[in-house]
Design the sequence.
């Protein structure tokens, strides 16, 4: 029996999860939100510092696990915002020192992928659509390879940026989804033409963002119709590249992940595509899609069991720019 505690702190969320034998015993988090405007890294880090003790005791309480039962501390090593990552690693190291346990440095993006195993997906192509990242990932010979990605903004940041411009607070995604549902009312929703920018296996979003802002500014278009058209256009770009990755790799499973995967229209479009090409569709629960500590603990446990961890705490540092395909996957 192994019990792993996982810490997530890469951006807006400070979360702690506890996993035992692939079962999630606790997944507690606190998220920094703003009424207006985007995320300020130092403010988010302050939020983490102020929430960490409370989140930690809640996680222990919810799980019924005592400190002595924890075998290792996993934490998000990167990619992410440095001030936020530093809060996480500091908490991980202090705890590891006090409990005399090893720490397991986990790549945040790969944790989003690997926690998908909980849904039953075995060897999927993953459409990872979160705030800072948008990638099509699949495992091939020793690494999680990126088959396609955004060339500029992550899709969540893109949506948040437009939402902010329209005077909606952070995160903008859920509000944009609600607005899109109200587009022009009735079944005849109004699709406004927007640039569609798929380049090979990659996508680009900044041109669409500028276009959307200009359209909003012109006063000729309603925010609900723009929100709807944005979702239809950009999600079609994601689904197109994901489908092509399924075709190239010959894999038969699509796994959706990252915070934007909470969007029911994106889920619907992925389901339709999978049905049409005879692939299986997987999507974890909402609490595992957004940033959370349970996914860090989940991958932490897999790595710990393969003896991939560090005991010399001085040698372990954050990796704010670590890429998915930088990591040698030694646990498969
Ligand atoms: P990363 O994994 O790249 O570090 P992150 O930490 O910002 O990114 P997540 O917590 O995975 O990401 O996702 C947050 C993003 O998900 C935000 O941009 C938010 O607007 C978006 N989001 C949440 N719910 C929805 C929704 N219903 N529709 C669209 N986007 C959504
Ligand atoms: Fe994330």
Sequence:
């Amino acid at each position: 029996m192994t019990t792993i505690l996982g810490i997530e702190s890469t951006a807006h969320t400070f979360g702690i999860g506890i996993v035992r034998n692939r079962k999630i015993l606790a997944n507690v988090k606190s998220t920094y939100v703003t009424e207006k405007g985007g995320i300020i890294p130092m403010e988010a880090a302050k939020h983490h510092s102020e929430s960490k003790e409370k989140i930690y005791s809640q996680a222990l309480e919810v799980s019924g696990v005592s400190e002595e039962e924890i075998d290792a501390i996993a934490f998000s090593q990167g990619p992410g915002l440095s001030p936020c990552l530093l809060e996480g690693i500091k908490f991980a190291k202090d705890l590891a020192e006090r409990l005399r346990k090893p720490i397991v440095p986990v790549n945040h993006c790969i944790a989003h992928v690997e926690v998908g195993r909980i849904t039953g997906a075995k060897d999927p192509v993953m459409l990872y659509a979160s705030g800072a990242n948008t990638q099509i990932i699949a495992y091939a010979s020793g690494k999680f390879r990126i088959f396609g990605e955004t060339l500029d903004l992550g899709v969540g940041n893109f949506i948040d940026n437009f939402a902010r411009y329209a005077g909606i607070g952070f995160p903008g995604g859920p509000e944009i989804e609600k607005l899109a549902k109200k587009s022009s009312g009735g079944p005849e929703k109004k699709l406004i033409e927007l640039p569609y920018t798929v380049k090979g296996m990659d996508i680009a979003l900044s041109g669409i963002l500028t276009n959307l802002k200009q359209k909003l500014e012109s006063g000729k278009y309603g925010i609900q119709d723009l929100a709807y058209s944005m979702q239809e256009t950009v999600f079609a770009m994601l689904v197109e590249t994901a489908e092509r990755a399924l075709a190239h790799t010959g894999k038969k499973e699509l796994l959706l992940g990252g915070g934007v995967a909470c969007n029911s229209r994106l889920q619907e479009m992925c389901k339709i595509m999978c049905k049409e090409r005879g692939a299986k569709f997987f999507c974890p629960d909402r609490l595992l899609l957004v940033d959370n500590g349970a996914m860090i603990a989940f991958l932490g446990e897999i790595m710990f069991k393969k003896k991939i961890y560090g005991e010399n705490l001085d040698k372990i540092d954050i990796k704010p720019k670590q890429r998915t395909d930088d990591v040698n996957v030694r646990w498969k």
User: Anything to note?
Assistant: The first strand starts at residue 3 and ends at 8. Residues 124 and 253 are 5 Å apart (CA to CA). DSSP finds ten helices and twelve strands in the chain. Residues 108, 112, 130, 258, 291 surround fe (ii) ion (ligand 2) (CB under 6 Å).
